Amino acid sequence: MAYEYMSQEGYDKLVAELRHMETVELPQVRDAIAEARAQGDLSENFEYHAAKREQGRLLSRIRFKQRVLENARVIDTSARQASGCVQLLSKVEITNLANNSRMTYTIASPHEANLREGKISIKSPIAQALLNKKAGDTIEVRVPAGLLKLRIEAVS
Questions:
Q1: What does the alpha-carbon distance between residue 60 and residue 13 come to, in Å, rounded to a whole number?
Q2: Quick one: DSSP state of residue 136?
Q3: Which burial class, exposed, middle or buried, applies to 144 when counting CB atoms under 10 A from its CB (0-12, 13-18, 19+)?
Q4: Has this prediction a pTM greater than 0.85?
Q5: Per-residue pLDDT of the chain (156 residues; tens, 9 = 90+)
Q6: Which residues of 55-87 are buried (b: 16+ CB within 10 A; e: fewer)?
Q7: What are phi and psi of 123, to 5 degrees?
Q8: CA 5 and chain centroid, separation
Q9: For a FRET experiment, which of 10, 57, 74, 130 has its CA 20 to 30 Å from that of 30?
Q10: Count of CB atoms within 10 A of residue 97's CB?
Q11: Backbone dihedral region of 24: left (phi > 0), alpha (psi from -120 to 50 degrees) or beta?
Q12: Buried b (16+ CB within 10 A) or exposed e, 104-138
């Protein structure tokens, strides 16, 4: 598995989510299984089967987050070169040339991506097209809605 590059904030958030799943959610599911088991016949016990399914789902999510954290590499933003090129954790202001709307995005790891917070995944088509470009560059991006023409206004 390749390294998962992310910010310190994203790493801390993943650690907190994992800790919450292990210390709060998993004991709750185990209690639900024990309670359902105490009701008797397991072959027709819906609560037992639902709790077991939830336990499997939760354990799968825990293993996934553990693997991500094992391969995580935190990027020190203070030591990054101020090259002016778009890279992971860069904040990019772009203009859609079709309608002159301005947007500001932070290029983030897939685990930190959240459009409401203005963070787009580095694996998204827009971020891939922006990588290693500088302010003033114009790019064309093929997205599901068609072809976008974007101009990079600023990179920080």
A1: 18
A2: T
A3: exposed
A4: no
A5: 578 888 888 899 999 999 999 999 999 999 999 998 888 777 778 888 899 999 999 999 999 999 999 998 888 766 565 667 888 888 999 999 989 999 999 999 888 899 999 999 999 999 999 999 999 999 999 988 889 899 999 888
A6: beebeeebeebeebbeebeebeeeeeeeeebbb
A7: -90, -5
A8: 11
A9: 10
A10: 14
A11: alpha
A12: ebbbbbebbbeeeeebbbbebebbebbeebebebe
For residues 109 and 111, give the distance between their C-alpha atoms in angstroms, rounded to a whole number: 5
**Angle at the Cα of 28 (from 24 to 33), degrees rounded to 5?**
150
Could you tell me whether strands 119-121 and 101-108 are parallel, antiparallel, or unpaired per DSSP bridges? Answer: parallel
In eight-state DSSP terms, residue 113 is -
Phi/psi for 141 (5° steps) reads -125, 130
Residues 6+ apart with CB under 8 A from 80: 87, 89
Token duo for residue 29: 């599911």
CA 50, 51, 55, 58 torsion-angle sign = positive
Q: Tokens representing 148?
A: 């976008």
Rounded CA separation 103/119 (Å): 11
User: What six digits make up the tokens of 121?
Assistant: 């995944």
In angstroms, the Cα distances linking 134 to 87, 137, 151 are 10, 6, 10
